Amino acid sequence: MKKAWLAVTACLLTVSCSSSPTPDCIYNCAPSTNAGNNNHNSNHNGNHNHNSNHNHNSNNNHTALTEAQRQALFKYLENQVKKQWGDKDYLQAGKHRYVKYFDGYRTRAHIDFDNGKIYVSTVANYAPEATLKKAIEETLLMPADPSQVDIFSDKSIPLNGKPFLLGQVKDHENQNIQWPWRAGKYADYLIANKLKTKKLQHGTAYYVEIDMVNDHLEQREYQYADLIRQAAKRYDIDEDLIYAIVKTESSFNPFAVSHAGAYGLMQVIPKTAGADVFNLVKNKPGIPTKEYLFDPANNIDTGTAYFYILKNRYLKEVQHPVTKDYAMISAYNGGTGGVLATFDTDRKQAMKDINQLQPNQVYWALTNKHPKAEARRYLEKVLNFQKEFESM
């Protein structure tokens, strides 16, 4: 199975691999029985969010943004970028797209994870090639720790630790790029041989395009295999499902953000699923911050903990295990309320209807009758990805 190979590979790539058995509980992580109660209506892509009794070294000491503050932050970023690039060439980070600005918002790095492309561009008037070289180096060597990368400002990236893109990009000599000297050498090659220009509203953009390796997705999967294995064991959620959710939500992009305010690999929204997990599983007040959720360990733990809540609280009355899996996946995207509304406006009647149907009938309803079109597509997409991980 693919998950077994990913676990082995992750073990080989880290120093945390041990022949001793994994303890039943990692950190102080026994899920609270509070999560076993019933009834709620949150989702993760607009109404929900996730987390656990997980005590990773990344804390939640930052102040969580209010919705007004989050909107103001995005608006400020948009205004600064448009001053340099114009309205037509404005680009912001997304779920499957990394975008980071530098140098007074005149320079940017854009990683298209769906298509395996990296674009580094600048509209700087003074020394554009030197500016571009610095941005290429910072992009290739940016650390795997998202807390070191502020995608909401034009701050430079500190080049320390293992590069996030290590193994996902090869240079012109077909070598991995781990050290500054090699990144600089490759940047020089790109500027000398691959530099392109494009006329924009406010001038000229200088840019280079970099191809990622064919298995760049698998390379990212390897990075998080151990975290997924631990979270699956901690909450008794299938590893294949977690992999499928991460692939669907972010294409294993730890810097992922959405218009709805979701963050990280499993696209957790702080005020909904994040709040549920803090309250029901972690037994703590408040909500997780974006800094907390950009941390891959926290994010995977939180997202998986929310599945624990769906399974043991909001959807615990669903009797057939396959039907419950369908309902959980759909609820992760469109909320428990959306799942129930597919069958009846009355919650009790909806649950009764679900339990009277066969799993294939429930699947048909959720992929054809769910109130939200996105949720109808979501269940099918996740299940297809889950089959990939089960069969490999």
TrEMBL record:
Residues 227-353 form the Transglycosylase SLT domain. Keywords: Signal. SUPFAM superfamilies: Lysozyme-like. GO terms for cellular component: membrane. InterPro entries: Lysozyme-like_dom_sf (IPR023346), Murein_transglycosylaseC_N (IPR024570), Transglyc_AS (IPR000189), Transglycosylase_SLT_dom_1 (IPR008258). Residues 38-61 are annotated as: Disordered. Pfam families: Mltc_N (PF11873), SLT (PF01464). This is Membrane-bound lytic murein transglycosylase MltC. The lineage of its organism: Bacteria, Pseudomonadati, Pseudomonadota, Gammaproteobacteria, Vibrionales.
